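Final report, Chapter 2: Outcomes

The project's central promise was a pipeline that accepts a single protein chain and returns its three-dimensional structure in a standardized token representation, suitable for archiving and comparison. That pipeline is now operational. To close this chapter, we reproduce one record exactly as it appears in the project archive, with the input sequence first and the structure output second.
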Amino acid sequence: MLNLQKALLLVSETVRKAGSYLIQHLGRIKEVEFKGERNLVTDVDKSCEQIIKSLLVENFSEIPILGEELGGENAELCWVIDPLDGTNNYFHSYPVFCISIALVEKGSPILGVIYDPNREEMFTAIKGKGAYMNGEKIQVSQTNSLKQALLATGFYYEFKKQRDTNIGHFVDFLYEVQGIRRSGSAAIDLAYVACGRLDGFWELGLQPWDTSAGFLIVEEAGGKVTKFDGSLFDPFFPQIVASNSRIHSEMLEILGRRKF
């Protein structure tokens, strides 16, 4: 049986090594591949992915790995990894990016790690054991009203091809909240909801490697994560609403104003 505490220590060491690599190569990208008009992958993504993959395979050879650049299918138990969440930021040397790793069992994360190498902040969670940043327990904010809330969101890379671009939701929220941020890294946004820097986050079109670790960390910090209709969140479904739970119903009401 897998020891999750031991696994967390090994994953933490893994992301620190990968994070060090990202910082060392910041501003030194040699190759860029465009997967779409705005969606790109660099040689650094691939090298960082290989660092993570090698260490996971070395220590957990029996557990398959699912990732953005790896492809592959979901298994009953698998690692879900994003070696560089915020690639566009990284490409421009904009210091908002991170590494996200989750262990997912039957579609539900049971271990999650998000590491921001720029600030040397590591957010971690094991299901049922709480959420932590650099070893200190964290919790969501106490903001009770959307009017006083600071939210974050993001937009599809290929939003021109989507019926629901999220722009309408953005405008709706803009009139109702204290502020909205757009960091370019969904994993960091979720980590910030977990530690109370943000009160809520919503986005469309994300993938399991974007949200799996953050989903668990937010819930373990006392927050709430659902789909737009309020139903149970599924990392493999491209809708997410995360909050401190206190403003969740207000967020769902605003998202429900637009039907697509």
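Archive annotation: The mean pLDDT is 91.
This record, like all others produced under the grant, will remain available to the consortium after the project formally closes.
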